[in-house]
Automatic annotation (TrEMBL):
Full protein name: Transferrin receptor 2
UniProt keywords, alphabetically: Cell membrane, Disulfide bond, Glycoprotein, Membrane, Receptor, Signal-anchor, Transmembrane, Transmembrane helix
Domain of life: Eukaryota
Family: Belongs to the peptidase M28 family. M28B subfamily.
InterPro entries, per database record: PA_dom_sf, PA_domain, Peptidase_M28, Peptidase_M28B, TFR-like_dimer_dom_sf, TfR1/2_PA
A single MF term (Gene Ontology): transferrin receptor activity
Length: 734
């Protein structure tokens, strides 16, 4: 009994099971001559053995629990430390956003699938207004026109920033474009001359002020005040009988038309030159109240089109492979920007018929008359000399992309102009800063899912039985269905040359691969009113971005108005009545998004915050600085940029998240119906020219029926069928 008890005890300590221990005890007890053993002794030994075994089991369970916790804690800490090292944004952004998986989600695809609401919360977490403000300051320290050392330095900095974000693909696209700059040897000049052309007085011009792509040469004639140089302005002058042929036009900045359109209209009307000035009625000119100084001119290109005008319709990769030609939108008459002081000096000496009502500006000491004659000696005229020079310049567009997981060959594109004649805080700094911040934000959202999934797999390899727990407790990440493309464009000040040349080079590919384009140019010129310059296909998208988040979430999730604290952008728009008609506007010629729609057929949008009834006066001048923009916004530059960036990001999320592209193709039919109805008012004029609008009506009807058929087919489709969703998305873009 003693021997058996000792061996049984030894068996327990060695970890033997209860069945083996009892068997060994019974084998030792059942021996010849031992049958006379005491049954009572056997019962006592077994009872003692059971009690000891229960006690040792408790100890073993306790030890195993402690050892398991130790292994788990050690593995967790090791994984956390290694994860923090490879997570390049954690040290800057704080902890990752905790997003929890819902039951039944599949982790096999490289991370958990997040709902749109969760992605919106993650977006708000990562988007940082401080980073935007700092980037605007860096990007607008000094003038950085295309081809300058400052321009190349900024391009390199942006390329380096993209590389730090660990994008899927990063590259630069170069073109040789013909740009126009002021001559280094001859300055543009303005003279008062007599009837014989003898120079009487030189009117001093700033050598930095010029109109890119102006015709070069000399123009001499009387001066005619043409208001904003719109088509209706010239029609009014013809009605009044004002002599235009051989005269020089004096036009105001603004009026809803670009410099290029002003010069084109003047050329068509028979004028020989154009002088363009900022009137105090349109652009504030009190330096004490954030106004433009009266001796400052506003510069802008005058090419009626976009892209390199010497390679129209094809990319400027290498000029030698294309026949020499030039754009029909290049002006044939010289154009020159002048200051309000110079305009006042000339207009105050004009004689002629009084200006029509509404044409009166606010130049001091000027009684508004149309010209073209001058008071004083007969025959006095103005002579303008333009000596700009053409120069081939290497321009560089910088690209970075996040590859889509399901439809990687479809792109949602975001872009911003990088170059500027002046410091360009509004012209290029704001857009570039928002672009880089959105790239960083989306990259962080994707990296969140990539790193946390890698960490989950590491833990699962160490602790096979804890995979479910770890998969539940770690953060989810953003997995875009379609690819995201971020682009920094060069030579935007010359008519979106960089963007248009890229479009011309890859037009056949982009036609069915570019889902939409969002321009971030001049995104912040105030903080009062939001405007959306857009093609019709994206109108419902921005309405959904404004409405959806505020219907399903509290104000903290809404896009809050940057100026009116505690109120959303949507609530303020709705308070103004018909907010869609006030906010939504057509794309304009100099918009960074214009060429994508007009030339590439890609739906495009340009959002902008601005002041109601007051323009930002420093665009296209040497005074477009961060300090002045901050003064206008009362120190809220980062906040306003963040609000606009968030709104763009919400639309991008929809376009990259939804199985079926959230684009209502019937909106084109509605717009075409509205525009074609306006042709009815011109039917008599069209018939005189042998034209009929009937083909427009027929085409609109065909499109309307096709769009409705496609819309009905999509409604009846299973969105889980990837083959069908890709088919319908292709049809939508086509």
């Amino acid at each position: 009994t003693t021997v058996g008890g000792a061996q049984a005890e030894e068996g327990v300590e060695e970890g033997g099971g209860a069945r083996d221990t009892i068997t060994r005890v019974e084998m030792k007890l059942v021996q010849p001559g031992s049958e006379s053993g005491s049954e009572a002794g056997l019962s006592n030994d077994i009872a003692a053995l059971v009690l000891r075994r229960q006690f040792d089991r408790r100890k073993a369970v306790g030890y195993l629990t402690l050892i398991g916790l130790l292994i788990f804690t050690t593995a967790f800490l090791l994984g956390y430390v290694s994860f923090r090292r490879m997570c390049h944004f954690c040290s800057e952004e704080g902890e990752l956003v905790p997003m929890y998986d819902t039951a039944g989600q599949d982790h096999s695809s490289g991370g958990s699938i997040m709902y749109l609401g969760e992605l919106k919360e993650m977006l708000k977490k990562y988007l940082k207004e401080e980073k935007i403000e700092n980037t605007v300051r860096r990007m607008s320290r000094m003038p950085h026109p295309p081809g300058s050392s400052e321009g190349y330095a900024l391009a390199s900095e942006i390329l380096h920033n993209f590389q730090k974000l660990h994008m899927d693909h990063i590259w630069a696209d170069s073109h040789y474009a013909t740009l126009q700059f002021p001559s280094r040897t001859q300055r543009n000049a303005l003279w008062m001359v007599d009837a014989e052309g003898v120079e009487l007085e030189e009117i001093s011009l700033d050598s930095a002020d010029y109109c890119a792509y102006s015709a070069m040469g000399t123009a001499t004639g009387g001066v005619v005040y043409v208001n904003y140089a719109r088509q209706e302005d010239f029609k009014h002058l013809h009605t009044l009988g004002v002599v235009l042929n051989g005269s020089v036009a004096m036009a105001r900045v603004g009026g809803g038309v670009s410099f290029a359109e002003k010069v084109w209209h003047a050329q068509e009307a028979g004028l020989v030159g154009v002088l363009i000035y900022p009137d105090p009625a349109d652009i504030p000119q009190d330096p004490r109240r954030l106004g433009l100084h009266s001796n400052i001119a506003v510069s802008e290109h005058v090419h009626l089109g976009s892209g390199d005008p010497f390679t129209p319709g094809f990319p400027s990769f290498n000029h030698t492979q294309f026949p020499p030609t030039q754009s029909s939108g290049l002006p044939l008459i010289p154009a020159q920007p002048i200051s309000a002081n110079i305009a006042s000096k000339l207009l105050s000496q004009l004689v002629g018929e009084a200006c029509p009502r509404g044409w009166q500006g606010r130049l001091p000491y000027v009684q508004c008359v149309l010209g073209p004659g001058f008071s004083g000696p007969d025959g006095r005229r103005v002579k303008m000399d333009v000596y700009n020079r053409m120069s081939p310049v290497l321009i560089n567009n910088v690209f970075a992309s996040i590859e889509g997981k399901i439809e990687p060959d479809q792109y949602v594109i975001l872009g911003a102009q990088r170059d500027s004649w002046g410091p360009g805080a509004v012209k290029s700094g704001v857009g570039t800063a928002i672009l880089l911040e959105l790239a960083r934000t989306f990259s962080a959202m994707v990296q969140n899912g990539t790193h946390t999934h890698t960490l989950a797999r590491t833990f699962s390899a160490i602790l096979q039985n804890t995979h479910t727990f770890i998969g539940w407790c770690l953060c989810a990440g953003f997995q875009p269905r379609r690819s995201l493309l971020f682009v920094s464009w060069d030579a935007g000040d010359f008519g979106n040359v960089g963007a248009t040349e890229w479009l011309e080079g890859y037009l056949s590919l982009l036609h069915l691969k570019a889902v939409a384009y969002f321009s971030l140019d001049q995104a912040v010129m105030g903080d009062d009113t939001l405007s959306a310059y857009t093609s019709p296909l994206l109108v419902d998208l921005i309405e959904g971005a404004l409405k959806q988040v505020c219907v399903f979430y509290t104000l903290s999730i809404c896009v809050e108005h940057p100026k009116h604290t505690g109120r959303s952008i949507l609530s303020l728009l709705e308070a103004q009545g018909s907010w869609r008609s006030r906010m939504v506007k057509p794309l304009y010629l100099n918009s960074g998004a214009y060429s994508f729609t007009a030339f590439g057929g890609v739906p495009a949008m340009e959002l902008r915050f601005h002041e109601e009834g007051r323009v930002y006066p420093f665009v296209n001048t040497q005074l477009d600085s961060v300090g002045r923009l901050q003064d206008l916004l009362q120190g809220r530059l980062g906040e306003v940029c963040r609000a606009l960036g968030e709104l763009v990001a919400l639309m991008v999320l929809r376009l990259t998240h939804d199985s079926i592209l959230p684009l209502d193709v019937t909106s084109y039919s509605t717009s075409a119906l509205r525009l074609s109805s306006q042709l009815n008012q011109l039917s008599a004029e069209l018939q005189v020219r042998g034209l009929s609008p009937q083909w427009v009506y027929s085409a609109r009807g065909d499109y309307s029926r096709a769009a409705k058929t496609l819309q009905e087919a999509i409604k009846n489709t299973d969105v889980q069928d990837e083959r069908m969703t890709r088919l319908y998305n292709t049809r939508i873009m086509r």
